[in-house]
Write a structure and sequence with these properties.
This is G-protein coupled receptors family 1 profile domain-containing protein. By secondary structure, this protein is mostly helical. The protein has two domains: 314 residues, Rhodopsin 7-helix transmembrane proteins (Rhopdopsin 7-helix transmembrane proteins, Up-down Bundle); 35 residues. It is 78% helix and 4% strand. It has a two-stranded antiparallel sheet with strand order 1-2. The longest helix has 48 residues. The protein is elongated and about 85 Å long.
């Protein structure tokens, strides 16, 4: 654990030491879990059987965005604890570029969940609208590209509003990435704007859409039961293809509802602690209050990063189609490995068989004896 000069006095507080330990020991666990899980999610969600559903395309892009969030944000935080040097503070350009990328990909991750929730809302509540207009694939790609462009434009101001600021502390100089010339915008205004973009607006939109989806699912289920009761003994039925589509859409809906509610639960605390830090009257004058709040902020940040690490586990727990494709992927790898081992074991036998056949042909054509046959075989091997 690396302790900076201005942190030495704070290390006498238990909660500050706990804050440092959490930043040191939890990130590698989340990085490992998120890296493996997101890569596997990306591989499975881009398989042909999954790509035909637009919801899975959104989730594949979400896996890539979550990976970037972990490496740009969490890994940088962890390496800073290990070495005492934050990449954000290395130079003006790393300060600006890392800030733009970090804000953009984290916002993009949240708004991808809004996009996929909106897509599910249209599919469940307005199914006829999904067949109108251009192809679903084109709409999905346009939405993905448009979201990324808008969120990049929203955060691009960091390329000129932040820079590295040097502050004298005792006999040392502390370099921090800050909005020196735009202090009010970066330190006072933008935290509220970012909280709205990353959490508050997604919270409201997702809650409203999920409520409408759940209400429509309940209504549709009651309607199906009523139709089955009223048409019992008649010829009313769904063919096999329609039943499979209906079941798969229901499973996708349940999985996306879970993902969106988990997102809300794990990202809201980081903005609640931000509001507490801004509004608490004693943060600037009471070291004990500041230390306690810093611990809460660290816990909230780790919860936020865990949201970008655990989607693979959610897909495995809830998504039957995802599990099936994961099992197929694993079984294909095992079959390929067994086939490779069989080929490797059979190769010497095949060479020996080929040698015997070639020798038999030569001896029969030339009328040679068995001694010559053995020497010819030895020569070819």
């Amino acid at each position: 654990m690396n302790v900076r000069p201005y942190e030495e006095a704070l290390m006498t507080y238990d909660n500050f030491r706990l804050h440092k330990q959490l930043q040191l020991y939890v990130p590698p666990v989340l990085l490992l879990l998120g890296s493996v899980g997101n890569v596997l999610s990306l591989v499975i969600l881009t398989r042909p059987a999954m790509r035909k559903y637009s919801a899975y395309v959104y989730l594949a892009v979400l896996a890539a965005a979550d990976t970037l969030v972990l490496y740009v944000g969490l890994m940088r935080l962890w390496l800073g604890q290990l070495t005492g040097h934050d990449l954000l503070d290395a130079s003006d350009w790393t300060c600006r570029l890392v800030t733009v990328v970090a804000y953009t990909v984290s916002d993009y991750s949240g708004w991808l969940i809004i996009a996929v929730t909106l897509e599910r809302y249209v599919a469940v509540c307005h199914p006829l609208a999904t067949s109108m207009g251009g192809s679903q694939r084109a709409k999905t790609l346009a939405t993905l590209g448009g979201l990324l462009a808008v969120l990049t434009a929203v955060n691009v101001h960091f390329l000129w509003t932040v820079r590295v600021v040097d502050t004298e502390y005792g006999n040392s100089t502390i370099s921090t990435c800050a909005g020196a010339d735009y202090e009010v915008l970066v330190a006072e205004v933008w935290p509220w704007v970012d909280a709205a973009i990353y959490s508050f607006v997604p919270f409201l939109v997702i809650i409203v859409l999920n409520t409408l989806i759940i209400r429509q699912v309940i209504r549709s289920r009651r309607e199906r039961v009523r139709l089955l009761v009223n048409t019992s003994g008649s010829r009313f039925s769904l063919d096999a293809g329609e039943r499979r589509t209906c079941v798969e859409n229901s499973r996708i809906t349940v999985m996306l509802l879970t993902v969106s509610f988990v997102f809300l639960s794990l990202t809201m605390p980081v903005n609640v602690t931000m509001i507490a830090a801004k509004l608490h009257p004693r943060v600037a004058v009471d070291v004990g209050v500041m230390v306690n709040l810093r611990l809460l902020q660290t816990m909230a940040e780790l919860l936020m990063y865990s949201n970008h690490s655990i989607n693979f586990l959610l897909y495995c727990a809830i998504g039957q189609k995802f599990r099936q494709n994961l099992f197929r992927l694993c079984s294909c790898r095992q079959r390929s490995r067994r086939a490779h081992n069989v080929d490797s074991n059979m190769y010497p036998l095949m060479r020996a068989t080929s040698c015997r056949k070639d020798t038999a042909v030569v001896t029969e054509s030339l009328g040679l004896g068995s001694n010559t046959r053995r020497s010819t075989c030895t020569h070819r091997v």
